[in-house]
């Protein structure tokens, strides 16, 4: 990585910016966080803010698996075999990939885990791995929100496919119903954004992931956020929970 690329070729402003960032980060407390919440609860909006504020690395297990597969790491090769057979990638493998990722310099101050652990077994395996590294999860941010609000949030989303512009029938409607403001082309709904798909994703979330919240609650490290509030308010709640 950085060792092979020649630092002489990096513009001074970039080097200075990175140095200043690292100096600022050096004073931040370490944090190991898990974000839990159903689809549409706003985790994706808050995680980049938290990542920058606390100098953490963002570990999205889906992306990490894909990266490991394309980099053909030993764990990636195993994961690819499982996927090709149509099997789920084992919990041990996912935890192994997280373990690998934690060696990166960007993860020095800690991490944000998003979309994992989804089950209590995964949480236990994650805890074991962290214990072996001499660390532990500091805080679990629970993006609590009512299913009915999620349905309104998600099923109201419409997209202009070629530009990626997004609209919402209630919160950010197009000027004319069903068409893009700029081109006048028809808007579409993503397959995932229908009530039926949301319903099955929410059922899976309640069944598998709510026990994870209980598991961490027993250790007193869960912060319940009111995720139905506007993003700015949720951001303040996150800051309170992490201060």
Automatic annotation (TrEMBL):
Entry-linked SUPFAM superfamilies: P-loop containing nucleoside triphosphate hydrolases
Keyword Kinase: yes
Keyword annotations: Kinase, Nucleotide-binding, Transferase
Catalytic activities: AMP + ATP = 2 ADP
PROSITE patterns the record matches: ADENYLATE_KINASE
GO molecular function (one): AMP kinase activity
Residue ranges of every copy of the Adenylate kinase active site lid domain listed in the record: 157-192
Main function: Catalyzes the reversible transfer of the terminal phosphate group between ATP and AMP. Plays an important role in cellular energy homeostasis and in adenine nucleotide metabolism.
Name of protein: adenylate kinase
Native organism: Erythranthe guttata (Yellow monkey flower)
